[in-house]
UniProtKB/TrEMBL annotation:
This is Nuclear transport factor 2. Pfam families: NTF2. Has a role in nuclear-cytoplasmic transport of proteins and mRNAs. The keyword Aminoacyl-tRNA synthetase does not apply. Residues 7-120 form the NTF2 domain.
Length: 122
């Protein structure tokens, strides 16, 4: 496993674990420069992303990653990730999903989600 894959795997583990245990804590992965597209709708900045996270109606969610691809990003030390998998909300049937992330250095030794595109696959 190359370093980019290792970083991507660690990031995804943290991201989805946070989403499964405390969805409101997910906001820590974003900054005011972040952009999220969720099901075709665009959310710019922390306030809009936080409002979207608050609107997610599930009480319990379980994610399973089926596959992940990673590429070096355009900015030094950034990564572009593409994820496919399945999720189950509350007691519903499982849904397939795809999600892309562009993660950038945050200037403090860590990374943040600059771009996030999520889509359920029907």
């Amino acid at each position: 496993m190359n370093p980019a894959q290792s970083i991507a795997q660690q990031f995804l583990q943290q991201y989805y674990q946070t989403l499964m245990t405390n969805k409101m804590a997910l906001i820590q992965f974003y900054t005011n420069a972040s952009i999220m597209t969720y099901g075709g709708e665009l959310y710019n900045g922390l306030k809009a992303i936080n409002e979207k996270l608050e609107s997610l109606a599930f009480q319990k969610i379980v994610y399973k990653i089926d596959d992940m691809d990673v590429q070096p990003g355009a900015v030094q030390n950034s990564l572009f990730l593409f994820v496919t998998g399945s999720l189950q909300m509350d007691d519903s049937d499982a849904f397939k999903f795809s999600q892309s992330f562009q993660i950038l250095p945050n200037g403090q030794g860590g990374l943040y989600v600059h771009n996030d595109i999520f889509r359920l696959v029907y």
